[in-house]
Write a structure and sequence with these properties.
Elements lengths: L1 H22 L6 H26 L12 H11 L9 H36 L10 H10 L45 H33 L2 H16 L9 H17 L2 H20 L38 E4 L17 H6 L1 H6 L5 E3 L5 E3 L16 E2 L2 E2 L8 E5 L5 E14 L2 E8 L8 E7 L8 H7 L10 H10 L3 H16 L18 H7 L11 E3 L2 E11 L8 E12 L11 E5 L10 H10 L1
Parallel strand pairs: 1-6, 7-12
Antiparallel strand pairs: 2-3, 4-5, 7-8, 7-9, 8-9, 8-13, 10-11, 11-12
Helix pairs in contact: 1-2, 4-5, 4-6
Pfam families: NUDT9_N
Protein name: Transient receptor potential cation channel subfamily M member 5-like protein
InterPro entries: NUDIX_hydrolase-like_dom_sf (IPR015797), NUDT9 (IPR039989)
Length: 617
């Protein structure tokens, strides 16, 4: 901000000094001219440097006329106080002058030309409009009618009264005027009517149009996004300026030249090492930028806009005094009963209802009256794989990964961590990779949803998948092996044995890989793949395991960057990847269908689930 106001202060000083130089007589003091020349040269030098920095090219300046008066007038036009350098408010004036006014002038020009010809002919029927200065005078009167009203032609001039002679007949040319002098203006009903119509059209109709154009520009400028862009543009522009404004920027250039020479001859190697270290530091900072999807606006299935949060202010340990995001909490009645969702909470309710405070046992487990355990511990672990304790802001839990721009619990069922299980099931149909999905989304308007869902109670992680894939079964899935066994049963074991025998026989016959028809090839090892692409999850995927006709792996268990996340509620997921290497898989499993993994699937899945797919495909 110091640089911003310093530049403005010096710019105002330049405008005042330049105005004084223009207003004094044509032979001014040579000292003042030299000062103005140096100042303008320094401003020109600064513009060249900024152009080189931003556009990577140098502007070529063509010499202009040497005439002192012409140069002064050109400079006056250049330094009109309509520049956007004084802030976004002056941009409105600039937009009106260079955009709206020129549009209006383009629309009104045909009316002014036509009106000027009609008015001139009606007042001077015997005068050639192209003779002498008649055309210039006519254009002058019509154009400046925008700013004043010319009505002298509508009445008789005293000098023309003695020349009135309606009986005068000239035998050498045709004459319509009633005066012996054709330069005397004719007045009457028709000239008066033409003047009135033209003035109404120019002053009322076209004037209202100009006001409407200005109002439209004003309405567009009042938009929040426009102001943000203008602020960003101003900050960016002043960021590349030198610390000192013209004409003091010569000192900055001298300092940079000396510094450059010292670095070249003395500290070249040291600077190279510093640059490498700073690059590494930037890389580390980039890797710790989280909350990408969790900061997107508007909030899913609503018109709620998040408070914009830059990467710098995502961590809670970075102070942000003015941070006051909107509060959004979906009512408890809008969730399915089996989710046992939380209602809205506040400190007053906690004080009046002690039992409610026990239910919200953050960083712990609560057992309800039905002996169902609600686990509010996080799956996020530290470097030693120990669960962390997330912080509390009074009674509200704080998102361990930082600010999201929205308070409340949003559309998530519970305050604090919301545990989910997500299973990505894939196979090859010919050469096309397909995934297993079901119609509709949970708490979203997505067309498809992956296998899995919200875990309402502790110990029901894998049973959540059973209720979707095998609801008729009465055996609860308590371990991941129960889930894997179900997916293994979807493969025809006999056909898998036949496929393996065929492959072994093909190998013995030394048939090349290119001659074998493409089937469900084993999934590539995505240990490194998932770790590399899914950077918000700082944990390594589990071991890649294999059974008959399938491969499976637990990719992650922890924080899930979701658009549904808020400052006080967030998703955590246990993400599995199951890939069928055999063609002998059931075409349909209950309400689930196989869909090709194509680009258009991005719009049919929730952004969070599509990000999970991208992390390991």
């Amino acid at each position: 901000m110091t640089k911003y106001w310093l530049y403005h202060l010096f710019y105002v000083a330049f405008i005042v000094l330049f105005s004084i130089d223009v207003l004094i007589p044509g032979c001014p003091r040579i000292e003042l001219d030299i000062l103005i020349f140096v100042w303008i040269a320094s401003m020109l030098l600064e513009d060249i440097r900024k152009t080189y920095v931003t556009l990577k090219k140098i502007v070529r300046f063509v010499p202009i006329a040497r005439h002192t008066y012409a140069v002064r007038m050109l400079m006056c036009a250049t330094f009109l106080p309509i520049s956007s350098v004084f802030g976004p408010l002056f941009y409105w004036l600039k937009l009106m002058v260079f955009n709206d006014f020129w549009q209006w002038l383009f629309l009104s020009t045909p009316f002014m030309i036509g009106g000027g010809i009609i008015i001139f002919v009606s007042h001077f029927p015997d005068v050639d409009i192209f003779d002498g200065d008649n055309l210039r005078i006519s254009f002058h009167r019509i154009f400046f009618s925008n700013f004043r009203t010319y009505d002298d032609y509508m009445f008789e001039r005293p000098s023309c009264e003695p020349l009135f002679d309606s009986t005068f007949k000239n035998l050498t040319f045709c004459r319509e005027s009633v005066y012996t002098d054709p330069t005397c203006n004719r007045y009457g009903v028709w000239p008066y009517l033409f003047n009135v119509v033209f003035l109404i059209l120019l002053k009322s109709v076209l004037g209202t149009l100009l006001t409407a154009l200005f109002s439209n520009s004003s309405a567009n400028i009042d938009k929040v996004h426009f102001w943000r862009f203008q602020r960003f543009h101003t900050i960016t522009e002043f960021n590349i300026n030198t610390p000192l404004p013209p004409p003091l920027n010569f000192a900055s250039y001298a300092y940079r030249i000396v510094k450059y020479l010292c670095c070249c001859f003395c500290c070249g190697k040291k600077e190279e090492i510093v640059n490498v270290e700073s690059t590494r530091g930037r890389g580390k900072r980039d890797e710790t930028v989280y909350q990408i999807l969790a900061r997107t606006s508007p909030y899913p299935n609503s018109i709620v806009e998040r408070t914009p949060v830059s990467d710098k202010y995502v961590p809670w340990d970075v102070s942000w005094v003015d941070y006051d995001p909107l509060v959004f909490t979906r009512p408890k009645t809008m969730f399915p009963k089996e989710m046992n969702a939380d209602g809205d909470i506040n400190e007053e309710i906690f004080e009046k209802t002690p039992s409610l405070a026990r239910r919200f046992n953050f960083n712990g487990v609560f057992t309800d009256s039905h002996l169902q355990m609600i686990d509010r511990r996080t799956w996020i672990t530290d470097s030693k794989k120990r669960p962390i304790n997330y912080a509390l802001d009074g009674i509200y839990p704080l998102n361990p990964y930082g600010r999201t721009g929205l308070s409340g619990k949003g559309s998530l069922p519970r305050w604090g961590p919301n545990h989910y299980i997500t299973v990505l099931v894939t196979r090859y149909a010919g050469s096309q990779l397909e995934i297993l999905v079901r119609q509709g989304g949970e708490l979203t308007n997505a067309d498809y949803t992956l296998v899995g869902g919200f875990i309402a109670y502790q110990g029901e992680t894998y049973d959540t998948v059973r209720l979707q894939m095998d609801p008729t079964s009465t055996t609860q899935w308590k371990q991941s092996d129960d889930m894997i066994s179900f997916f293994e049963k979807q493969v025809d074991a006999e056909k898998v044995s036949v496929e393996r025998k065929i492959k072994e026989k093909d190998t013995e016959d030394t048939i090349t890989v290119s001659t074998i028809p493409k089937t469900n090839a084993p999934i590539f090892d995505f240990d490194a793949e998932a770790e590399e692409t899914f950077k918000p999850i700082p944990q390594k995927p589990g071991e890649l395991l294999e059974k008959k006709g399938m491969q499976y792996q637990k990719v992650l268990k922890g924080y899930f960057d979701s658009p549904l996340n808020t400052d006080n509620a967030w998703r955590e997921t246990e993400f599995w990847r199951i890939h069928y290497t055999s063609d002998s898989v059931k075409q349909k499993i209950l309400d689930f269908v196989w869909v090709p993994l194509k680009e258009d699937l991005r719009d049919k899945l929730s952004p969070g689930e599509y990000a999970l797919i991208q992390s390991c495909i």
